[in-house]
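Target protein
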Amino acid sequence: MYPPELVKPMRDDLTNVGFEALYTSEEVEKALAKEGTTLVVVNSVCGCAAANARPGAKMSLNNDKRPNHIVTVFAGVDKEAVDAARAHMIPFPPSSPSMALFKDGELVHMLERHHIEGRPAELIAENLMDAYNEYC
């Protein structure tokens, strides 16, 4: 587990633009039970992928269509919440960072770490916006 002071700026990077931080499995279940679309960002300290994942997730919100709900869990910190979120992302293997779009509780779009790592934030945002345009 990472110390809270280390991850705070990375968590705040998303919560400061409206993402709701989830810490427990109950919070995850409640978030995914909501009607409409929900973007779940599995945040990470990994500099090689998360450094573009967070900006990409934020940029994706500058779209005419966007998710009804935006939430985040933090890998290596919020184990219970991350495990609960990942249980809904099956058949995809656990990876962080990652992003999943749910519609009425069903997984409809997934960005795994290998879709994020080495790609610029703009390309990540474009991928998410395409999913928003289709499902939101």
